[in-house]
Amino acid sequence: MNNARKSAGARVTRVRPAGDIVAETLAGHPDRTAAELTQLAGLGGSTVAKALATLEKAGRARRHAPDLGGSHTDGRGSADAGSGSGGRRPEGVPARTTTKAATGGRRDRLGKGELTTLVLEYLVAHSDVDLGPTAISRALQRSQGAVANCLTKLTASGDLVQTCEQPRRYRVTS
């Protein structure tokens, strides 16, 4: 009897799913980064990241490339929106779509040897500076490990020369 009185006077609050909160926040604030959405929604970073991934899979959100500001839209935004570089892609960096929904259900996988070609072309375009795998992988938006493997392969073939051991730096041979 005593428990019945306590529950009768208690307020009932409903917990909204995080995905709904993030979707609502994104709809009200398109072209925001995940960090900004975290602040606006009042949720944790990993919670927002998971919700955004779910929204992307459902085609309700779209992620922009990091060199274009790294923002998300509610699925109605343009692919060139963002504040990072004014919508310009750095020279020598290929266009890349980051979600399945934006590519009609297929991922933008490279064919055999294509990453090696991209890495070599990037180094040729930036032949005035020694570059490491981290900088190249960020510019090309590809795996650092895969880029490092390409650099090793290109060095062994004589197309590149390793100019520094620690940190590893490479340059195109003349």
From TrEMBL:
This is MarR family transcriptional regulator. It comes from the Bacteria. Residues 58-109 are annotated as: Disordered. Residues 95-104 have a biased composition (Low complexity).
